[in-house]
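Reopening: structure tokens for the flavin mononucleotide complex, inputs below.
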Amino acid sequence: MISQNINPDFYNDLDLSFTKAWDMIEPGASKRSSPAHTPVVGTVNDHGEPQLRVMVLRAADRNTRRLRFHTDIRSTKIQEVEKLSSASVLMYDPDMKLQLRLSGCLSVAIEGDDVNDAWQTSTTFARRCYMAENAPGSLSVEATSGLPLWIEGKQPDEDQLGDARANFALLWFEARSLELLYLANVGHRRAKWDWDDAAAIWSGRWLVP
Ligand SMILES: Cc1cc2nc3c(=O)[nH]c(=O)nc-3n(C[C@H](O)[C@H](O)[C@H](O)COP(=O)(O)O)c2cc1C
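Re-run output (same inputs, fresh job):
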């Protein structure tokens, strides 16, 4: 009986594993059903405590090593990033049994073509989030959406968005390391790549899972 090789092509191939990782990340920006669409983004607060939250991946490009997220300029994560840019991004595809752990730094952008394009190409429903009257995370004496009552349950038009654009920011994540963990019955696989600034290349190696 011929035994069937059930391992994927990247199983023992470091370069293919790297390609596989980015093949999982990049479609997350456009494909809502992709597990990479809603990664966990980690920052560090003033007390050195990790702060994790789910965010929607808006763009990803292996050539620039950058991922793009949208957020409210008033949110706590912005204050954290402005003090310490170190960040990580975590995603897991349960069908592929693939975990990806990226480390790098985040930067905030509030002006420029990228920000304007991201704002203009978002639906007005998505942009409604930025109409919140008080900062995300601020205390409220009652249960609240934070939105003005007149727009709750409605999709605003361009005029109704008012000056919500002032609350909109991009968070750019630049990856400096990428770690892959593949779960397999026959034996797991783990690999890590670090970005080498001087050579401008990713340098990868296998790790014990
Ligand atoms: C599915 C999902 C998607 C989310 N997407 C975003 C997002 O794209 N941007 C964002 O700022 N918050 C997003 N959030 C909310 C964050 O998880 C978090 O609660 C919020 O940004 C406040 O985080 P902070 O206090 O650490 O700034 C999302 C939450 C969920 C559950």
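The two ends are 31 Å apart (CA to CA). The chain has a mean pLDDT of 96. Marking as resolved unless the reporter disagrees.
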